[in-house]
């Protein structure tokens, strides 16, 4: 007998690009969400401000050949605003997020949609990531996040509980929480905090869903006074909204001060790879 066809929920997938994205990496990222075992019913590309000619050629090609929906901003507004634009224009209730230089595993959406069908109460469905340098076969680490709702919410009080490039969102809850908003390098974490206050239900699945490109620049982006001030400001917001206690606020800010503001990039990179990540299989 032939296998019964599964009627998966229709969903949108969104991927953004901006001037500093590598055109070849962007193409690999786009094709990894197009060539899925369960294809998106809609792919949205957000173009955040002016982009170089070679990158724009890729965007135009994907619009022509794959019917991608292109949403362009006249100026660079940041990743959070690009995601907000996609949420506002998406046709479907479920929206999958993807980054411009990472690679989704071929059955990522199939796995997430099966969970969504079994548990329609979940508002965010994320998963694990494996980090690589140059080639996905060169895995240097894995960021593991908690699985069940209560564990995700407990983890959220300390750190961001999702790998944002893996998530599948219920758009009605995202909009109920005020959609993505601008918050330097923390737009996703801020959204999850606001969704928490609205009663959202969270989960991560144990499988690796995305291979994430890493390097020295990533550790630079996760450090410096501007990054620390953004994180400290978010911790204060969480304190004011009773997500964390005052002692936890002090502890969280102190750790971030040491790691993000005072620590040199090379040591921060070592800490992330050796202490904050599990070792990948090379």
TrEMBL record:
Tagged with keyword Transmembrane: no
Residue span, Glycosyltransferase 2-like domain: 18-168
Molecular functions per Gene Ontology: glycosyltransferase activity
SUPFAM superfamilies in the cross-refs: Nucleotide-diphospho-sugar transferases
InterPro entries named in the record: Glyco_trans_2-like, Glycosyltransf_2, Nucleotide-diphossugar_trans
Keyword terms of this UniProt record: Glycosyltransferase, Transferase
Pfam families according to UniProt: Glycos_transf_2
Residue runs in coiled coils: none
Top-rank taxon: Bacteria
Protein family: Belongs to the glycosyltransferase 2 family.
Name of this protein: Glycosyltransferase
Organism: Treponema peruense
